[in-house]
Amino acid sequence: MLDIGTAYQDLRDGIRAICAEFPDEYHRKIDEDRAYPEAFVDALTRDGWMAALIPEEYGGAGLGLTEASVIMEEINRSGGNSGACHGQMYNMNTLVRHGSDEQRKRLLPKLASGELRLQSMGVTEPTTGTDTTKIKTTATRKGDRYVINGQKVWISRVQHSDLMILLARTTPLSEVKKKSEGLSIFLVDIKAAMKSGMEVKPIRNMVNHETNELFFDNLEIPAENLIGEEGLGFKYILTGLNAERALIAAECIGDGYWFIDRVTAYVGEREVFGRPIGQNQGVQFPIAEAYIEVEAANLMRYRACALFDQGQPCGAEANMAKYLAAKSSWEAANACIQFHGGFGFASEYDVERKFRETRLYQVAPISTNLILSYVAEHVLGLPRSF
Ligand SMILES: Cc1cc2nc3c(=O)[nH]c(=O)nc-3n(C[C@H](O)[C@H](O)[C@H](O)COP(=O)(O)OP(=O)(O)OC[C@H]3O[C@@H](n4cnc5c(N)ncnc54)[C@H](O)[C@@H]3O)c2cc1C
After folding, report:
1. Strands 120-122 and 163-169
2. Would you state the pLDDT for residue 5?
3. Low-confidence ranges of the chain (pLDDT < 70)
4. What is the DSSP letter of 228?
5. 383, exposed or middle or buried, with CB in 10 Å at 0-12, 13-18, 19+?
6. CA distance 160 to 163
7. For residue 1, what pLDDT is reported?
8. pLDDT of residue 3
9. Taking the model in full, what pTM does it have?
């Protein structure tokens, strides 16, 4: 049986060694400056961690989602934020599994060496939100090109990526039998697109997360940039979304352990009324409860990753892992900020920064309500509500 306390220790030691070069002060300054952790992501790339999921024949490490999730977990557990670079992990599977031989040969070696970054995925739109099959961005075939028109919102890391995986409708909704049909995914060369039909408008937000509105006005991309078969994009993007959910679960678990470590150390030392505040059960219990929940979420995360790595359906497990992990890290965050008292609000303690960062995962990449709805309808077979 997998011992979740010691699993993948060699991998953890390797990633911890890099993370140790980037202490709290580094991540705090990046957050204050609203900057991108360029040096950190470069170091991860240089040492091959960003190529974890690329098969060895293309210069990558040939690891599975489980190992990739451990990398993400350790970044967050060290006080960093994988949000700066997790796109490369969840997008990679989409390209590796559904890309053509030509695309794999052309791109994977460059992604493995760090010459190119594949950090962006463009799915969400302002007018359709979570109702993904209703997206309005279209891709129309014109000779050897597709012409893209429409709008996206909250598309992250566009300014720190070379490539983006874009979801667009290739057959109108009115002409397909099932609403999930007629959608396709494409590789977009971001820098070329910014010169010829794609406008990028940054969105300032609560977290230091580089995210943007995108406007497409007759953007032309080569037809060879289509990934897989035209019309099956929704099915392909689900591979990426399940990977994303499992990876973000691991990140939340990393956050959860970070909060628990910090608050446990703090309440053991901080004395009020002549004794450590951690001696009060009112302080102990929320911390213990959060720890129990993080550990339980961790089991579901490993299960989701194992199913994904075996090529088996893992939608339910990936969703449940993300739900449990995001909830438990948020509870750990609340206990951590609460028992730091006023100091929890001081930037130099890093608690408020991590608190903001982990809060995002109640909403993105899928909101808690939509996971509950998925489980109710797809796992429990209850009537569909939409
Ligand atoms: C910082 C950040 C980075 C992001 N990065 C990316 C990215 O790189 N690529 C990308 O494609 N997207 C990205 N997103 C978008 C993200 O995936 C969406 O915000 C998320 O899926 C929720 O969609 P929405 O914002 O449109 O909310 P909506 O769909 O408008 O929903 C709003 C709220 O209503 C509730 N709700 C909606 N429908 C139901 C229902 N049927 N039943 C019950 N409750 C419901 C939910 O609580 C939900 O949170 C990012 C978002 C943020 C904030």
Report:
1. parallel
2. 61
3. 1-6
4. S
5. exposed
6. 9
7. 60
8. 67
9. 0.97
Ligand 1 binding pocket includes 151 (Cβ within 6 Å): no
The token pair that represents 201 in the structure block? 């408008």
- CA separation, residue 110 to residues 4, 56, 105, 106 (Å): 34, 13, 9, 8
Q: What is the pLDDT of residue 2?
A: 63
Q: How many CA atoms lie within 13 A of 286 on its CB side?
A: 19
Q: Are 365 and 318 in contact (CB under 8 A)?
A: no
What is the set of domains in the chain, with CATH numbers? 9-113 (1.10.540.10), 120-232 (2.40.110.10), 235-379 (1.20.140.10)
Distances (CA, A) of 1 to 7, 227, 299: 10, 38, 11
Share of the chain above pLDDT 90, in %: 97
Tokens of 322: 């993300």
pLDDT score, position 7? 83
128 lines ligand 1 (CB under 6 A): no
Assess whether the C-beta atom of 130 lies below 6 angstroms from ligand 1: yes
71 CA to centre of ligand 1 in angstroms:
25
Q: What is the 3-state secondary structure (H, E, C) of 58-108?
A: HCCCCCCHHHHHHHHHHHHHCCCCHHHCHHHHHHHHHHHHHCCHHHHHHHH
In 310-359, alpha helices (H): 315-339, 351-359
Whose CA is closest to 117, among 86, 73, 72, 146? 86
Give the distance (Å) from ligand 1 centre to CA of residue 158: 18
Name the residue among 102, 62, 311 with its Cα closest to residue 187.
102
Which of 304-343 are b and which e, b meaning 16 or more Cβ less than 10 Å from the residue's Cβ?
bbbbbbeeeebbbbbbbbbbbbbbbbbbbbbbbbebbeee
